[in-house]
């Protein structure tokens, strides 16, 4: 095939609707996984729709499943399935319309649980009765409806120390029940041709990367080495001026705003991120807290514009709002994000550009893969002068006690800062996350 024909075929392959079910047991990482997966595909230029969990919507209205009779439970599950079908169909029709637009790429639909999950919580004979009454069949509901199923194994099965029901209004399961529900949820999807189970054999960050990598492999996206378990984040300082757009490979630009929030505990970080294109926004709320074993547990949650605006009232006045243009692009199968800081900001951020990537390459090999069209001055990975927490501080660095000199989590929090003040320790906890 000639290059033009091949490029046309590749473009047509990208213009597809890919429907994914993200399911799993309690405290398996679905919420964070959905947020991370959405961001990853949006950075590639895909449109992402997120179908909300229908069961949570209905249960949050006062329904207590344990109080229902067998007949009531069956009726509830039937209405639940109908609700799920309508929600999914609505997003699917939107997705089909989107990919017909000029210059659009693929569209990913992430379903927070799928139809078969509804059958995991009632008796098998009741589920079969429900299917017969509605002329539904398992092949259509399970195999033909979804492109891929990802099951995120509950922390209750293999990562018990991290299992928690804190912050979940509809969740009260102990470890034993969580394991049972996890097994039932997985068993409901056995038989789907593309069913991936993401267990707890690695730490949580690697678990999320394995999940994203699994989706990319099925979709046919070459992620290079940025999702390997040995990948690490690298950050580079880029000198201006910014090259013309024509110097870049195909890219996606996003408007990004970050707000650090006030925290009642120096050991817990809360922040908001607003990210969008052409006036359409997504909102992420991140909570990051240390765990006794030395790791950090981080939960990213998609939120509504209303909730985002309400939380803005808790913004920390010690920090500027960070405003960036984030340019995402691929060079030689290596994924890059170029953050271009915008005004209003502290003078230290004027004209600042930082390039980030993930790689498993060692030594000088990563530098050989950097974009040649950018004027990269130096690597600044781990340099506190380039952490977003420090860059956003309103006070001058030589006057504030909040400047954080360590960007690496440690079990002994007193070892993290150059100063012994509690304020400085709090700042270090806050800046563990470097601007993502």
TrEMBL record:
Top-level division of the source organism's lineage: Eukaryota
Phylogenetic classification of the source organism: Eukaryota, Metazoa, Ecdysozoa, Arthropoda, Hexapoda
Source organism per UniProt: Phlebotomus kandelakii
GO biological process, one term: photoreceptor cell maintenance
Residue span(s) of domain NadR/Ttd14 AAA: 21-206
Protein name listed in UniProt: Putative aaa domain protein
GO MF terms held by the record: GTP binding; phosphatidic acid binding; phosphatidylinositol binding
Gene3D superfamilies referenced in this protein's UniProt entry, alphabetically: Hypothetical Protein Pfu-838710-001, P-loop containing nucleotide triphosphate hydrolases
């Amino acid at each position: 095939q000639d290059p033009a024909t091949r490029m046309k075929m590749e473009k047509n392959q990208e213009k597809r609707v890919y429907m994914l079910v993200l399911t799993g047991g309690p405290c398996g990482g679905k919420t964070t996984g959905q947020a991370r997966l959405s961001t990853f595909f949006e950075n590639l230029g895909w449109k992402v729709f997120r179908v909300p969990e229908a069961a949570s919507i209905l249960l949050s209205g006062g329904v207590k499943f344990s109080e229902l009779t067998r007949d009531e439970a069956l009726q509830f599950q039937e209405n639940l399935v109908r609700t799920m079908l309508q929600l999914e169909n609505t997003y699917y029709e939107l997705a089909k319309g989107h990919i017909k637009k000029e210059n659009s790429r693929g569209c990913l639909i992430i379903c927070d649980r799928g139809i078969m999950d509804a059958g995991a919580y009632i008796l098998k004979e009741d589920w079969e009765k429900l299917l017969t009454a509605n002329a539904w069949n398992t092949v259509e509901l399970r195999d033909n409806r979804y492109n891929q199923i990802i099951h995120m194994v509950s922390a209750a099965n293999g990562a018990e120390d991290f299992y928690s029901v804190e912050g979940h209004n509809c969740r009260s399961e102990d470890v034993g029940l969580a394991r049972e529900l996890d097994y039932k949820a997985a068993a409901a999807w056995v038989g789907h041709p593309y069913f991936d189970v993401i267990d707890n054999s690695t730490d949580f960050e690697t678990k999320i990367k394995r999940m994203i990598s699994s989706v990319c492999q099925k979709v046919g996206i070459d992620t290079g080495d940025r999702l390997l378990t040995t990948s690490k984040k690298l950050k580079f300082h880029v000198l201006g001026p910014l090259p013309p757009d024509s110097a870049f490979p195909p890219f996606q630009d996003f408007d990004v705003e970050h707000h650090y929030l006030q925290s009642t505990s120096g050991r817990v970080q809360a922040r908001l991120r607003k990210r969008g294109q052409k006036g359409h926004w997504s909102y992420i709320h991140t909570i990051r807290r240390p765990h006794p074993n030395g790791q950090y547990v981080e939960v990213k949650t998609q939120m509504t514009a209303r909730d985002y605006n309400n939380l803005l009232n808790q913004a920390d006045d010690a920090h500027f709002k960070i405003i960036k243009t984030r340019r995402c692009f691929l060079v030689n199968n290596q994924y890059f994000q170029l953050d271009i800081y915008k005004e209003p900001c502290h003078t230290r951020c004027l004209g600042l550009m930082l390039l980030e990537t993930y790689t498993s390459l060692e030594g000088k090999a990563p530098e050989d893969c950097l974009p040649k069209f950018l004027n990269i001055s130096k690597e600044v990975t781990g340099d506190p002068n380039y952490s977003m927490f420090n860059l956003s501080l309103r006070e001058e660095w030589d006057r504030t006690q909040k400047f954080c000199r360590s960007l690496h989590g440690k079990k002994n929090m007193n070892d993290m800062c150059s100063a012994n003040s509690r304020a400085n320790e709090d700042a270090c906890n806050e800046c563990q996350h470097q601007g993502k």
